[in-house]
């Protein structure tokens, strides 16, 4: 009986809205952080300018992630895309420091 209640609740539009909202906040923040780290490493500018430009662009990335989270067809796809992109950006920003090749 309880399992049927949870399945019905998980399939409700309210649960979908909550999932999209959390994806916009949490996964969007992770994506903005990853994009900021990536751009801070790879932009072809002096270091202070790279950090400032990357920090300013992170707001646009976060807004884009929030718009995407409510525009996509399925909430699961939103989570997968945003977390995967955030992971790729963070990994790409971290690798040069591990290889001692930071630009």
Automatic annotation (TrEMBL):
Q: Which UniProt keywords apply?
A: Membrane, Transmembrane, Transmembrane helix
Top-level taxon of the source organism: Bacteria
The transmembrane residues are 21-45, 51-71, 78-95
- From the Swiss-Prot or TrEMBL record, give the protein name: DUF3649 domain-containing protein
| Native source species | Halopseudomonas formosensis
